Amino acid sequence: MSHIVAIVGRPNVGKSTLFNRLIGERKAIIDNVSGVTRDRIYGFSDWNGKNFTVVDTGGFVKGSSDIFEAEIRRQVQIAIDEASVIVFLTDVTTGITDLDEEIARMLRKNPKKVILAVNKVDNSQRQMMANEFWSLGFDDTVFLSSISGSGTGELLDIVSEVLPDEATEEQNMLKPGIPKIAIVGQPNVGKSSLTNSLVGEERNIVTDIPGTTRDAIYTLYNKFEKEFYLIDTAGIRKKAKVHEDLEFYSVLRSIKAMEEADVCLLMLDATAGIEAQDLSILGLIQKRKKGVVIVVNKWDLIQKETNTARDFEKRLKEKMAPFTDVPVLFTSVHEKQRIFKTVETALEVYENRSRKIKTSELNDVMLEVIEKNPPPSHRGKYIKIKYIAQLPVAYPAFVLYCNYPDHVKESYRQFIENQLRKHFPLTGAAVSVYFREK
Question: How far is residue 88's CA from residue 94's CA, in Å, rounded to a whole number?
């Protein structure tokens, strides 16, 4: 269940610094997928056992500092529409400005939870000055300094307190054990058309479960002896004058859909090739350890030569490296080409992602591989791997017990992951490999 925490406020109050604080030191770890440049507009955080996505709305503004108030109003509106909790950031050094007053008015009218955060409160004099911000009328008001980090723990405490618990009522409305598939991707790649083609006009075999607390609509798909939930986030259409914010909405929607899903169908536009934003969405899918199938749509618009698909796939995988064990399908939703293949492939990936490998088989295969290719020694210390086990989590994760786990290099971890993929059917699933001391 994905909760979005949005940071809003006028320019230069320190939204990006607070954003970096909230997603913590983990940012460096989160973004080390090589070759993937991504805009640091959203990141993941967890606190007191609650997971949530933090969004810095300031990152969506064109031409940052001389922003018009209309632009900020729009950001606040988007946050009100999409977020579970809104952090309204102000700056003690400027006091309450007219724009702050206006944002406060918009936020007071909305039913969402708002936390007022007064930034740059880093000495006792500013502590006194900050008291005037209580006049904006928010029960939850926190004084903090996002540069030094003081007060951010208190802010996170409130955020985690007000976020609903994971097991919400609609989780219970879904039948357990049925794969959940989300179609994600940039605007206009054909997500809605794919949804409509899959669901078809035969509405009698489709039951819509409207999200009680969110926009994702679950459609129970049940034909050709296949059963799964299709998570449709194409609800963007309902928003008025959304064209200007399409990218922002679609990113937030994709994040929500991704969180809910077991497998994501990442749709690309064949005519546009793979773009930075696609790699960014792929990076998110991997970080959240979801299964993935890449669907290259509008393939009917491409002029074909003998190896067109093969060359396209090769270029695609070069950009995706090191995570290349992913099915790639070429479709035309418009021409109804290979649409059902996407479903079959997604269900295969679901199987791979939930695969449990027998411990004996795992050790028979992998210990032999390791014997032939042992980890390189570290400063004369030989690293011996004695045993492998699969962890009881929702995706394939393996732990290798050895004597010097901290000295195993990343390249060797990559080697083990590749060998696991070579010997066991794990295509499309994100795999984690850990080294631990016995």
Answer: 15
pTM, entire model: 0.63
Count of alpha carbons within 13 Å of 253, Cβ hemisphere only?
Answer: 27
The residue to which tokens 């997604």 are assigned: 346
pLDDT at 205: 35
Percent helix, strand, coil in the chain, to 5, is 40, 20, 35
pLDDT tens-place string over residues 237-288 = 344 444 445 556 666 666 777 877 899 999 888 888 777 777 877 887 888 8
In terms of Cα–Cα distance, which of 66, 50, 69 is closest to 157? 50
Alpha-carbon span 340 to 220, nearest angstrom: 16
Whether the Cβ atoms of residue 163 and residue 120 lie closer than 8 Å to each other = no
Closest CA to 214 of 41, 42, 53, 16: 53
Q: Which of 417, 357, 367 is nearest to 387 (CA)?
A: 367
CA distance 323 to 321: 5
Q: What contacts 24+ positions apart, CB below 8 Å, involve 20-27?
A: 20/146, 21/146, 21/149, 21/152, 22/54, 22/152, 22/155, 22/156, 23/54
Q: What is the pLDDT of residue 332?
A: 82
Question: What residue type is 170 in one-letter code?
Answer: E
